[in-house]
Amino acid sequence: MSRMRVRLWASVAMSLAALAVALFVRTPSAAAHAYVVHSSPSPGQSLASSPGRIEVEFDETVQLIPGGLTVTNVDNQRVDLGDGRRNPLHANEVDVDVPKHLPKGLYTVHWQVISADGHMVSGTIPFGIGVNVQSLQLGASEQGYRPGFWMVVDRVLTYGGLALVLGGWVGLRAARRSLPIADNRLGVRWALAGWLALFVGVLFNLPLEAAITWSIHGLTAFAPRYLARTLNFTVFGYLWVIELMLIAVIPAVLAALSTAKPRERLATAMIPMFALPVTFAVQGHAFAEPHPILPVLAMAVHGAAASVWIGGIAQMLALVLQADRIPGPDDERLRKTVRSFGWIAVACVIALWLTGVYSALLHIPTWYALDHTEYGVALLAKLGLVLLVLGFAAMHALTARPRRATYRAWMSLELIFSVGIFVATALLTNLPTADIRPGPVDAVKRVGPYAVHLSITPNRAGSNLFVVQITKGSRPDSAIQQVELSLSSGSATPSAASVPLGARAPGIFSARSLALSGAGAWNAEVQVLTDDFQVLTVDFPIHVGT
């Protein structure tokens, strides 16, 4: 028993050391799918003279790739001084200098940065010198990474392998009630197959990330110079090394130190891989939050619970397929074993539900975004598949005395549809969150007898239509002298703009403006001056898309 405790504590100590590196070593990159929250000049701004310096601020820390911040004129000729850099005092800001005497004309800022998940994000910001850019209604643009076929395959391989490993560890122990680990050949083979799938998935993730990060294709992604760049200059590179240690190096050391039987040694070597959900969470959207500890912990628990649940189902199916080797005249022992794992599955589903709802509240700002963004649709698809798998589980769980054929049928369906869950998860971890498209603003607030209705369409950084309607009682109030809208960003360096609205009908005022210069949290303050010189002030917190 003392040797077993020593091996267990050694495993825990090495895993914690690897996690400490993953969580506390800061690297020149940051969170997932960055977007612009402020720029100077702002999109569509008309200047009287050259700004001298271009500044672009993001919602998170970013890495600027070589040549990733340039300025061109209307003839697509570069006019910047070629000194693009990340601001040493503000890790979420990039700067580049331009000549102090730029001629009049239209100019475009081109930016390319790398997010913490290793994905390239790029965009443009137009501005003018001595030119009325507002009249051209030119806004900023932004393009983010969308997962390709091979990335989805790699992610499914990784998540499926992790499930077979973590669920295998739990399931093999739950199955010991009916079949000792030494005799559970199929269960052990599935756990080994999971480890192999996990190892291959993580291994090939490096060239896939290199291809995305450096915009290269085919076998070029395997070139040592691009792999070295990815390892040295991105958070992903550091985490990739830690993941390989947790998958191969630390388990190999534990297995070498163990004196147990081979299959028991295998089970001990799996323990460090329970730290992998944390490294996966650090690479995702959770780490982009202003206070990332709780979101990262939630995603890690979510990933571990899903892996134990689905991988445990695989182990229970392996047990059923070997049921003829279980001694006894009936299936009672088999049923008790499956039901004992059922309680573990219930705990995992509860953890999935709680952490899933929490993450959805973080990344889906409005109901509109739930079915109008790729992220929201993928989340709905994942939820539907989870409910389907739960339905299959209920079919044999609610059967009074299920037979082996019943278990085989429903558990097989559970595993088949679990692949769909992994596909949806692979998409979710690679798609930008639903924050990019919260949808139009349509809000009403009351001030005494007045109701102030604010509408912003389409509510994205760039050109928007602002409409304010004032009613008194149930009728439009025509006794309004002036309406002005003040917009201030809560996501960036102090940034504010004023939008005067013109009368369009009794009680209705509107204007089209580029005042929303960046994405993220903003505050819209509506100021209304009535004919009797009463001033109404109403604040509307809004979330602006990209």
SS-derived structural category: alpha+beta
Q: What low-confidence regions span 5 or more consecutive residues with pLDDT below 50?
A: 6-32
Intertermini distance? 58 Å
Helix content: 40-55%
- The arrangement of helices and strands along the chain is HEEEEEEEEEHHHHHHHHHHHEEEEEEEEE
Note the total helix count: 12
Let me know the largest β-sheet.
Answer: 9 strands, antiparallel
Strand content: 15-25%
Query: Count of DSSP E strands?
Result: 18
From the spread of the alpha carbons, the general shape counts as flat
Mean pLDDT comes to 82
Computed over alpha carbons, the radius of gyration is 28 Å
Explain how this protein is built:
This protein has 546 residues and is an alpha+beta fold. 45% of the residues lie in helices and 24% in strands. It is built from 12 helices and 18 strands. It has helices spanning 2-24, 149-175, 185-213, 224-233, 235-257, 262-269, 276-282, 293-321, 332-363, 367-372, 374-397, 404-430; strands at residues 36-40, 45-47, 53-58, 63-72, 85-86, 93-97, 105-114, 120-129, 141-143, 441-447, 450-457, 462-472, 475-476, 480-489, 496-505, 508-516, 520-530, 535-544. Strands 10, 11, 12, 13, 14, 15, 16, 17 and 18 form a 9-stranded antiparallel β-sheet that branches. Strands 2, 4, 7, 8 and 9 form a 5-stranded mixed β-sheet that branches. Strands 1-3-6-5 form a 4-stranded antiparallel β-sheet, with no helix packed on it. Strand 12 and strand 13 (475-476) form a beta hairpin. The longest helix is centred in the middle third of the chain and has 32 residues, at 332-363. The chain is flat and about 90 Å long. Mean pLDDT is 82; it is low at 6-32.
